[in-house]
Each structure stands twice: as structure tokens, then as C-alpha cells.
Amino acid sequence: MKIEKVLNNNVVTIIDENGIEQVIMGRGIAFKKVSGDEIEENKIEKIFKLDSKNASERFKSLLNETPMEYVDISRGIIKYAEKTLDKKFEDVIFLALTDHINFAIKRFKNGLPIKNEMLWEIKRIYRKEYSIGMWAINYIKYKLGIDLPEDEAGFIALHIINATLGESMPNTMNITKLIQDILSIVKYHYKMDIDEESLSFHRFTTHLKFFAQRMFSNKQELSGDDSLYEVVKDKYEASYLCVKKIRDYIKVTYDYELTDEEMVYLILHVQRLTSKKV
């Protein structure tokens, strides 16, 4: 395996057998090395395979501009998130998260922290990802002695959510807002507080995440048997009236028409959530 380019002492690129450029990282992997030298494979810590020329160029630029400590921290956070969520992320998260950490620390040092307007929603809807964000800012404090605010835990959580859902940041923000708005409709329709510790709440928000992802991706499910919709609608009238408000809100706000099948699932979830049963 031969070096194509040396980016710094810890990062090189190679050209694989398919002619695709890959970025290889390892502490000291390029020390006293030049293009054409063999890589010491025992020093390889991570190989990044980015699926576009643009992403590859951005990644190389980022690694040139970012302190190695921040790169290591980003890798540590991703490793912890993958273990916690039992999920393997695409390499592109490393680019986005490292870039965010780099600028978050710069902003903090310059006294310019950014308020996370969606922190409350993230804490409610994405609890595991938020806990990873909190772990991350504690990890940064341990590694660098920099005490980032809780808002940054929310921003890091959003990057984890992006990787989990396979969405862009704007779509993730839209998904989060839609879920929050639907929960508010349920709350005010029933004039009740929702038990956010219940299994029903967890099931409902999980369903909403995937529903919202389909909606914003324009992947509507085909409507199933209309007779089931009529049965559920008649059996759970109060839940139907609530979901009807949700349907009308989505139609007006997003110009998206819920199918009967989507209505059925929402009615059943709302019924379970509001009947105080898990």
C-alpha cells in the first residue's frame, strides 16, 4: 500500500485498486514519509472511503486545518455512539462531526456560543442521542479542559440523529419540528400531560420518526384495506378526531395527504398513548 499524498504527519491518501482515493489516518503514519513510500500498516487506525470527489476534498482540507486532538475526540464520540446505538455509521459523519467540533471550540474560545433553539425537543424526542451528546461534551472537557454548554450536546446529538436516519441536517430539523408539533396537537386535544417515560410514548415517537422521514423523503406508503380504517375510526372515535387534526395540520403545513393506512397507525398509537396503558 503506497502513499499517494502526505497531508500531515498523521494523514495520507492512497489510490485503491479501483482507482478511488482513500484517506488513511494513524498517529505518526506519515512521519518522514513522502509520496510513493510504503505505509506501515500497523500504524493504520482508520481508513475513510468517501463516495464523492467533493466530500474527499473537503475531508482532506478539514484534516489539514483541524488539530489532531479534535480529530481523535470526534473518532471517540463516533465509536461511543456506534456502541451505544448498536449501529455502524457511514464515514461521512466523521467529516460533519469533526468540522462541528472544530468550530464549536473556536466559537467557545472567542466567547461566541450558539443557542440551540431545538434543545428541549431533542431532549424529549431523541433521548439516547441526547445522552450521547452529553457524554461527548463531558469527554471534550476531560480531554481538553473545555466546558462546552449543554446546547452543544444537542448539536452533537443532531449529527448522531442524521447518521442514524441517513438524513441531511435540514431534514433532521424538519423531522424534529414535525414530531414536536404532533405531540403538541395530542396534548392540547386531550388537555392532558403526556407520560414521556412510558413505553407508549417511546413507541409513538419512534413511529413518528419513521413516518416523518418517509414524508420528507416523499416515500408515501400505499393505502391498505379501507375496511380496517373504518373499524379503527369507529372504535376509537376520540383518537380519530385527534388524528384528524394532525392530518389537517400536515395537509395545510406540508401539502402532504395522509393515507388511510397512515391514519390507522396514528390512531392506534394515540389511543395507546392516551389510555394510560403501556
UniProtKB/TrEMBL annotation:
One of its GO terms (biological process) is positive regulation of DNA-templated transcription. Belongs to the transcriptional antiterminator BglG family. The keyword Cytoplasm does not apply. PROSITE patterns: PRD_1, PRD_2. Keywords: Activator, Repeat, RNA-binding, Transcription, Transcription regulation. InterPro entries: BglG_antiterminators (IPR050661), CAT_RNA-bd_dom (IPR004341), CAT_RNA-bd_dom_sf (IPR036650), PRD (IPR011608), PRD_sf (IPR036634), Transcrpt_antitermin_CS (IPR001550). GO terms for molecular function: RNA binding. This is Transcription antiterminator LicT. Pfam families: CAT_RBD (PF03123), PRD (PF00874). Residues 65-170, 171-278 form the PRD domain. Gene3D superfamilies: CAT RNA-binding domain (2.30.24.10), PRD domain (1.10.1790.10). It comes from Clostridium manihotivorum.
